[in-house]
Amino acid sequence: MISPLFFILFASYHVQNICAAEIDIISDSQFLTENDTLVSPGGIFELGFFTPGSSDNRYIGIWYKKISVKTVVWVANRNDPITGASSSSSSSVLKIIQTGDLVLMNNTSTNNNHVIWSSNTSSSSNAIAKLDDIGNLVITDGEQNKIIWQSFDYPTDTLLSGMKFGRNFLTGKEWSLSAWKSDQDPGVGNLTYSVDTQSYPQDYLKEGDVIKFRAGPWNGLRFSGASDFSKNPIFTYNMVIDEKEVAFVYTLVNSSVVSKFTVSSSSGKVERSVWVEEGQKWQLMVALPREICDDYNICGAYGTCSLNAQVCSCLDEVKFVPRNEKGWEAADWSGGCMRRKEMDCENGSDGFIKYSNVKLPDTHNSWFDQRLTLKECEELCHKNCSCTAYVNTNISGRGSGCLLWFDDLMDLRVYSEGKGGQDLYIRMAASELVGQSASKNRGRNIKFIILIAFISILVIGLSITLFCYAWRKRRYRYAQEMEKFESMQACESQKEGMELPLFNFSTIAKVTGNFSLQNKLGEGGFGPVYKGMLEDGQEIAVKRLSKTSSQGINEFKNEVICISKLQHRNLVRLLGCSIDGDEKLLIYEYMPNKSLDFFIFDKTRSTLLDWEKRFNIIKGIARGLLYLHQDSRLRIIHRDLKASNILLDHDLNPKISDFGIARSFGTGNETEASTERVVGTYGYMSPEYALDGVFSTKSDVFSFGVLVLEIVSGKRNRGFFHPEHSNNLIGHAWRVHDEGRSMELIDTALGETSNQSEVIRSIEVGLLCAQQNPEDRPNMSDVVQMLGNEIALQKPKQPAFFLENKLFVGDFSSSSYPTSTTNDQTVTEVVAR
Predict the structure, then answer these.
(1) Long-range contacts, stretch 142-150, CB < 8 angstroms, 24+ apart
(2) CA distances from 644 to 236, 682, 828 (A)
(3) What is the pLDDT of residues 528-550, one digit of tens each?
(4) Do 274 and 300 fall into the same domain?
(5) HEC profile of 779-796
(6) What whole-number distance in Å separates Cα of residue 704 and Cα of residue 706?
(7) Which of 231, 265, 290 is the last residue of a domain?
(8) Are residues 630 and 768 in the same domain?
(9) Model confidence band, residue 499 (pLDDT cutoffs 50, 70, 90)
(10) Mean pLDDT of the residues in the chain
């Protein structure tokens, strides 16, 4: 028999859950109870009651609604929790009262309508509260729809897109961040991030009263000491500095990106993170301070930090010396450095020396005027003997504004070129400027001498013009012969006892029907490819260097030298070459079944490749790469492995081709190199190669992983767009594998295959090879054994893949990207580093 007390408790619980709802406004007649949530119009943010961790306290907070990991970005009553939340005798409500104030009230058995938190506003009785899609809780006057209060004016630990960071001088309101006390206590912690507005604005990360990190003042493009926060394809930044307010705001360019900027109590750092839907986690992009040199004023006045054994040194070791007589050997950097020679300002002989790529000094005791030019700034500083340095406040365009320092320069740091910082002009004694003045005088003298020399050379040049003209044609013919000679040398094999045959151009032209369209097999980055048949009946494929090709004599030589050394059943065989003036040809064995992409990306022809043939192709490519990386005389990195560079013979055996951009390491332990000339095909290039120009054998492993997934699925990685989650092929493969649905990836042309274990093993190998970090990718010897089921497979991590309209997972830095032509042709892009 059910007791009355049990029935009452059950009914109360049941009614409470039935009444739970999502509401869109809070008013004097519509309250938010503990079971309700206030949802933004687009369903992006949600406000409600929450309990952090295993705590027994409850709070009102805002979090992302569509993210599986509850991430609270704002807390109303962070220092005034609702205690005893588990008690059945306690109930709380968030509502608008008659005065137009938004209040959090708690009813208990001992205290009815106890106000825990209030917005402290006063307006008309018809005020309403609602939540915007940018995560801003606003109270508006119901009649005029005027905002009378907003949560963006009271940040907690998170800065959202569109939220201000700084200070309003008219109202005295400060927009700053403070970390939670702990993961289970959102109360105001000891770690704060705020803008110092005593002089020229700059931001401080403090632990209590101790400065931990200073990003440097805003210079129109970025914070001078935090290049990580420069403008990029994901965010735009803006800084307002005027008599009304100092306000920093960042705005998301792509609304589909979910990002947060947080002061973390657990790490003690300022962190920028992006939500990765595929991995269901927050991906940390930037954390500051990043390293020991980011610590505030670690090297003292006029000192600079570098990540070497010494760590600290003087800004200029010629003009500055350590204050500590024992120098840096004493490991006491608190004294910093001082000028080697005292200034003599009274006679006006002091001057300034420019130091580049400098993180601007602490501006706490500085002066600025944004209306002055750099020249006016120099004159103003020169007149004031207390002025120690000056710069432009804004370096965008031609520069503008004036910022002056009047004390020792603290918290300096010199960056490498392109890593941030700006020009800083430091006052120096006249004697320190002698070398600089002498250098300028020498420069003027040199210019005068150059002018006289130029006139003399011009006269002499006119007198010998006829002589040079006579030589012109002769030298041109000589240069042509030399180029031809060097190209012919390239065709000589470097392997002992083997010579690469030289074919006559007219012979090749004849056997290809004078390079007729009927004999054209296709075209790549090198140029068109033609079919021909030699007099002995041997079929050949002829690559003809196109005059408009992005590749040239260097790639031609490279392919001849590389491939003539290689002999393997899974590498295409080079039969010879031909050079005749501008005409350059490479002659290969003919592959009757063309290239792999001819089959797997065509709905009809893909049915000719059953799973057994595809698996044999995967293993054959792996054996060919293993030979290149390990078993050949030279360690070869192909750098352009893709479906169109895999040729198929009569029996559909794969042969790796096109070594025009391959690189060899020779013998020894060299396994990695870098280049400023990134070449390859978009969609197959590894992240470290595409972004930083670093390549190794693991670069080929990444391309192999992409190729395996394409062979299994019959889909191109580049251009694949899943309608449900917008991923490319790698992202889609990871998603179905992670959810235990790997067989959904298989090409529909294959139908049902009886060997599901081989399919799943191939997908896992592909994902392992496509890992973001090169260290996580297997080498090709392990790959061959994995495919042969000779060793167990490791569990793949989330691989590197590109999101639609986003940078690839793991790195949202603003780097240059190689671009691609159509038909997956090889491309070249110069990347500045």
Answers:
(1) 142/27, 148/100, 148/121, 148/123, 149/102, 149/119, 149/121
(2) 39, 13, 17
(3) 899 999 988 889 999 888 665 54
(4) no
(5) CHHHHHHHHCCCCCCCCC
(6) 5
(7) 290
(8) yes
(9) low
(10) 81
pLDDT in tens, 51-81: 998 888 999 999 999 999 999 999 999 999 9
E strand or H helix that includes residue 139: strand 137-140
Q: Which of 350, 411, 640, 747 is catalytic?
A: 640
Tokens 């790490």 locate to 267
In the predicted structure, residue 336 carries a pLDDT above the cut 50? yes
- Residues 687 and 543: their CA atoms lie apart, in Å, by 30
Asked if the structure places residue 398 within a domain, the reply is yes
Are 525 and 556 within 8 A, CB to CB?
Answer: no
pLDDT in tens, 719-758: 776 666 667 899 899 999 988 999 989 998 887 766 889 9
Structural domain including 59 reads 16-154
Residues 647 and 575 grouped into a single domain: no
Cα 252-253-259 angle, rounded to 5 deg: 30
Phi, psi (degrees; rounded to nearest 5) at 771: -65, 150
Residue 657: CB atoms within 10 A of its CB come to 26
The string over 163-198, giving b where at least 16 C-beta atoms fall within 10 Å of a residue's C-beta and e elsewhere, is: bbbbbeeeeeebbbbbbbbeeebbbbbebbbbbbee
- The span from the CA of 748 to the CA of 609, in Å, is 12
Cβ contact 746:758 at 8 Å: no
pLDDT digits (tens, 9 = 90+) for 684-721: 888 888 877 888 899 999 999 999 999 999 998 887 76
**611-626 and 697-713 helices, crossing angle to 10°:** 170
317: alpha, beta or left? (left if phi > 0; alpha if psi -120 to 50) = alpha
Q: How far apart are CA 746 and CA 611, in angstroms?
A: 10
User: Could you tell me which of 678, 669, 657 has the C-alpha nearest to residue 562?
Assistant: 657
Residues 126 and 178 in one domain: no
Report residue 329 as tokens: 């050997």
- Residue 216: what residue type? G
Q: Are residues 513 and 656 in the same domain?
A: no
pLDDT at residue 220, rounded to an integer: 85
Q: What is the pTM of this model?
A: 0.54
Q: How many Å apart are CA 806 and CA 173, to the nearest integer?
A: 36
272 and 383 inside one domain: no
Distance CA(556)–CA(471), nearest Å, equals 30
| Signed CA dihedral, 190, 193, 198, 199: sign only | positive
468 domain residue, yes or no:
no
Of the candidates 80, 76, 79, 82, the one whose C-alpha atom is nearest the C-alpha of residue 63 is: 76
Q: In whole angstroms, what is the distance from residue 77 CA to residue 48 CA?
A: 12
Specify the pLDDT at position 108: 62
- 600, 640, 667, 777 from 631: Cα distances, Å: 29, 19, 11, 19
Average pLDDT over residues 553-573: 76
Residue 755, both tokens: 């060997």
**pLDDT at site 801:** 58
| Chain segment 364-414, per-residue pLDDT in tens | 889 999 999 999 999 999 999 999 999 999 998 889 999 999 999 999 998
Greatest C-alpha distance within the chain: 124
pLDDT confidence of residue 367: 94
pLDDT digits (tens, 9 = 90+) for 642-661: 999 999 998 899 999 888 78
Q: Which residues pair with 251 in a beta bridge?
A: 236
SS3 358: strand
The 10s digit of each residue's pLDDT in 770-807 is 999 999 999 999 999 999 988 888 888 888 654 433 33
Give the list of residues 6+ apart from residue 507 with CB closer than 8 angstroms, or none: none
640 is catalytic: yes
pLDDT for residue 818: 32
Asked if residue 786 and residue 667 are part of one domain, the reply reads yes
